[in-house]
Every structure is written in C-alpha cells, then in structure tokens.
Amino acid sequence: MSKLCELKAKNPTLKFYSVNDKEFARYGCVLKGDYSSLVDAALALPMPEVGSKYEPTVPSFCPAVTEAPAVIPSAISFERFL
C-alpha cells in the first residue's frame, strides 16, 4: 500500500489532492526535468539534530537553481523528520 493510500485509509473524512490537481495551481507548478544536482546539494547540507535550520543562501544550489524555472524560491528551509 502506498503512503498516499495509507493516509487516505486512516483519514477517510479528508480530501487528498494530487499536486497536478487544479487545487494546487495557486502554489506554482510541478517541475519537470533532472534536478538531481539540487537534490544532491540539499542532501549534502549538515542537518541539525533537532528542528530545522533556515539557510537564506546556499552556494551549492546556485548551478541547479539557475537551470530551474523561477518558481523555486531563492531561500529554502529544509527540515528532516526522523
């Protein structure tokens, strides 16, 4: 069972949408392409033991972000839930 199906089963009163549904249009668009360099740069960042850390500028993101459409925010906050 996928995580989405599991969530739907555990929350039958909630409506779940796909990021491709019109309900998500106001948040931007789904990026298509190879963003593996951006993912690799994000995964290489040191993570705090607890909570999150805001990084207003991440130099290692620059090559990946300049190749991406303008919908990617210039400041990104990552949070890891374990």
Give the uncertain stretches in residue-range form: 70-82
CA(first)-CA(last) distance: 21 Å
Describe the largest sheet.
2 strands, antiparallel
Q: Specify the number of helices.
A: 3
Mean pLDDT: 74
Q: What gross morphology would you assign?
A: extended
- The count of DSSP E runs of length 2 or more, i.e. the number of strands, is 2
Q: Strand pairing plus helix content: what structural class?
A: alpha+beta
N-to-C series of helices and strands: HHEHE
The largest beta-sheet arranges its strands as 1-2
Radius of gyration equals 16 Å
What distinguishing features does this structure have?
two-stranded antiparallel ribbon, 82 residues, extended, 2 strands, alpha+beta, 3 helices, single chain
Structure, described:
The chain is an alpha+beta fold. It has one domain. It is built from 3 helices and 2 strands, in the order ααβαβ. The protein has helices at residues 3-10, 36-43, 62-67, and strands spanning 52-55, 76-79. A two-stranded antiparallel sheet has the order 1-2. The longest helix has 8 residues, at 3-10.
List the SSEs and their pairings.
Layout: H1 3-10, H2 36-43, E1 52-55, H3 62-67, E2 76-79
Antiparallel strand pairs: 1-2
Summarize the structure.
This protein is of the alpha+beta class. 27% of the residues lie in helices and 10% in strands.
